[in-house]
Amino acid sequence: MAETETISTTSTTLPATKISKEEENELEKKQGGISLRIWPLSQKTRDAVVNRLIESLSTESILSKRYEIFPSKEASSVAKSIEEEAYGVASAAVVGDDDGIEILKAYSKEISKLVLDSVKTRPLASPNPIAADAKADSTEDVKEEEEAHVDSVKVEA
């Protein structure tokens, strides 16, 4: 007859403890693993994003070919609000143990959407002053020519 052996096991769950980033990194080094998390972004990275947005909005770019260039102060405030809103949207999308790639995609997509919304909804400034002056001058010239023509017709009659 075969003997059967019964083994009883007891499992205990340790309470979850919150550890600092330094402790987490140290633990991973001991375990031989490397962890690379790209979210949340550092303030330095967020500032770089804002600076790039300011540059894109206030200088000659693909956007300025179709839409107007923003003045520096306006570009700065618009860029900051775009980045803050996109960061908030992406942070709300944080899911569990994600390494941040999907969150970063959501952040980038939101920034693109907000930039387009900003340039599309921005009221166009008055036309180029030089072009407006030239148009006014040409309109006056046409009126003067018409008046001269009418005067010359009256003289002939």
From TrEMBL:
Gene Ontology CC, one term: cytoplasm
The keyword Membrane is annotated on this UniProt entry: no
Subcellular location: Cytoplasm; Nucleus
Compositional bias per record (Low complexity), positions renumbered to this chain: 1-13
WPP domain span: 35-126
Region (Disordered) location: 1-26, 123-157
Source organism, top-level taxon: Eukaryota
The entry's keywords: Cytoplasm, Nucleus
Biological processes annotated in GO: lateral root development; mitotic cell cycle
InterPro entries membership: WPP1/2/3 (IPR044692), WPP_dom (IPR025265), WPP_sf (IPR038214)
Name used for this protein in its record: WPP domain-containing protein
